[in-house]
Design goal:
Elements (H helix, E strand, L loop, with lengths): L8 E4 L9 H16 L3 E6 L9 H14 L5 E5 L4 H13 L3 E4 L3 H13 L22 E4 L6 E6 L3 E6 L7 E3 L7 H11 L4 E5 L6 H10 L6 E5 L2 E2 L15 H6 L4 H10 L12 H7 L10 E2 L2 H13 L3 H14 L11 H8 L9 H7 L1 H4 L7 H7 L2 H15 L6 H15 L3 H13 L7 H8 L1 H17 L1
Parallel strand pairs: 1-2, 2-3, 9-10, 11-12
Antiparallel strand pairs: 4-5, 5-8, 6-7
The chain binds one RNA strand of 76 nucleotides through helix 4, strand 7, helix 5, strand 12 and helix 10.
RNA sequence: GGUCCCAUCGUCUAGAGGCCCAGGACGUAGCCCUCUCAAGGCUAAGACACGGGUUCGAAUCCCGUUGGGACCGCCA
């Protein structure tokens, strides 16, 4: 059978030594998209063989991150620490077939030789001194894989094409440590073989490992999977994206008020394109996704464009949905109490004019503050400019007229405003701005009639009165 | 140092030899709309890293230079 002709089986294989990184999230998403596009299987595999750095907490964080992004998997999560017997049997097989050998060099010796090689400007490569020694018992010995030393290995990459490596460059890498635990380059291959993986989609930091892994697949008698090495995500300084570039974990963006769909959309466009289209639904992504449209060069993560996309998604989300999503942010910002509940219908109505003014859920929560709080807090500059002698009388008149309005709707409120400005022959701004400050505390808000309606008659009158008193005192 | 990868506006990208004196998006600036702030609309500035080929013709193909990145662990 030709590789690629059978059912697609792909995997995302993070190591739980940190939160789900946005680079990892993108890799996961491309795998997921490829599987969904081809109606294949997407497998989640936790590569936790480094027991000193892997934690349960990070495993959970990664799983939570995947769920939040809506990346559902069909098999797993498998854990490599549960599969040591698999690796051992594969290693024993290689040993028995003479494709691997015991190495008795100590880590200290190896390190010393590495330093010497480095000092002499030589290639850093195991010298193969245990290759032909007597097998021995393998006590306290590591197991090395016997790489071919001549010829070349060709990687056929779905994104980069044909890449040729000289076998003389390949290192006899350790597949089992002297303590009996397997190493990464071996577990990946063993698992891919065992799980019948057809396509390996991963970051291009693994490109140089690929020729070595190809020989291990072959030694295990497995058909070589197809590879797709994704370009890296860089920070603004063009260095690989890391903590020092600011937030890099999926969780961090969740907490800052970003929407999962926005993150996914932003990440997928970083390195992939479909003509000029910028915004995609998930179904469109599944339909359009293909390796042909993945770029080869690394991409710089651009927070501004991501912010824009997020605001776009917020603007286009249903208010009812945002009303649900914003609650945790209202709580963390102390705008409502932990057990306090709000009228969902009212909240949605308040959100509608706010969503095109909020780039994140955090901002949305914050702009809801003046509606929910008992009292207004004036912005000092706004207060000085609009709440003064010049506006007292007109505010008083407005309050007076508003008091008798039965149907406190934007429409009716506007009629009152229009009547007043017409009478005094002033522009709407002359009335609207003082009112805005009186009601919201600042000079920026949605349309004033709408704000008053959402605020409600009682609060509106109370705040107008407070403003008038404030002027009176000053 | 060795090996490998990459190279279009500040950033993400379109571009598969003529459709490109290079298109879209973010950001920036200006204008319009307007009760403020947004949103929206319009406009502007802004790129094929460099040098050689190949070709009637190159952003697109080839070679080199330069620049960036990744990997070279008993980490993953």
């Amino acid at each position: 059978m030709i590789r690629g002709a059978e059912e697609v089986r792909v995997r995302f294989a993070p190591s739980p030594t940190g939160h789900l990184h946005i680079g990892g999230a993108r890799t996961a998403f491309y795998n997921w998209l490829y599987a969904r596009h081809h109606k294949g299987t997407f497998i989640l595999r936790i590569e936790d063989t480094d027991r000193t750095r892997s934690t349960e907490e990070y495993i959970n964080a990664i799983i939570e991150g995947m769920k939040w992004l809506g990346l559902d998997w069909d098999e797993g999560p498998y854990r490599q620490t549960d599969r040591f017997d698999v690796y051992k049997s594969y290693a024993d097989k290689l040993l028995a077939e003479g494709k691997a050998y015991f190495c008795y060099c100590s880590p200290e010796e190896l390190e010393q030789r590495r330093q010497e090689a480095l000092a002499q400007g030589k290639t850093l490569k195991y010298d193969g001194r245990c290759r032909n020694r007597d097998k021995g018992q393998g006590k306290n010995a590591a197991v090395r894989f016997k790489m071919p030393q001549e010829g070349e290995t060709v990687v056929h990459d779905l994104i980069r094409g044909r890449i040729v490596f000289e076998n003389a460059q390949l290192d006899d890498l350790i597949i089992i440590r002297s303590d009996g635990t397997p190493t990464y380059n071996f577990t990946v291959v063993a698992d891919d073989v065992d799980m019948n993986i057809t396509h390996v989609i991963r970051g291009d930091d693994h490109l140089n490992n690929t020729p070595k892994q190809i020989h291990i697949y072959a030694a295990l008698g497995y058909e070589i999977p197809l590879f797709a090495h994704l370009p890296m995500i860089l920070g603004a300084d063009k260095a690989r994206l890391s903590k020092r570039h600011g937030a890099t974990s999926v969780t961090a963006y969740k907490e800052m008020g970003y929407l999962p769909d926005a993150l996914v959309n932003y990440l997928v466009r970083l390195g992939w394109s479909h003509g000029d289209q910028e915004v995609f639904t998930r179904d469109e992504l599944i339909q359009y996704f293909s390796f042909e449209n993945i770029g080869k060069s690394a991409a710089v993560f651009n927070p501004e464009k991501f912010l824009w996309l997020n605001s776009h998604y917020i603007m286009n989300s249903a208010s009812e949905k945002l009303a649900e999503l914003v609650i945790p942010f209202l709580i963390t910002q102390g705008i409502i109490g932990k057990s306090q509940s709000l009228n969902k219908e009212w909240l949605s109505k308040a959100i509608t004019p706010l969503k095109e003014r909020s780039k994140t859920l955090t901002e949305l929560a914050n702009s809801l503050r003046y509606y929910i709080a008992d009292d207004v807090e004036y912005n000092e500059k706004a207060k000085a400019k609009f709440l003064n002698e010049g506006s007292r009388d007109i505010l008083f008149e407005l309050k007076d007229k508003l008091m008798v309005v039965r149907d406190f709707s934007a429409e009716e409120i506007e009629k009152v405003f229009r009547a007043i400005i017409e009478k005094h022959n002033v522009k709407l701004g002359n009335l609207a701005q003082p009112v805005r400050v009186a009601i919201t505390g600042s000079t920026e808000s949605p349309g004033i009639f709408e704000v008053l309606e959402i605020m409600g008659k009682e609060k509106t009158l109370k705040r107008l009165e407070k403003a008038i008193n404030t002027i009176g005192v000053s």
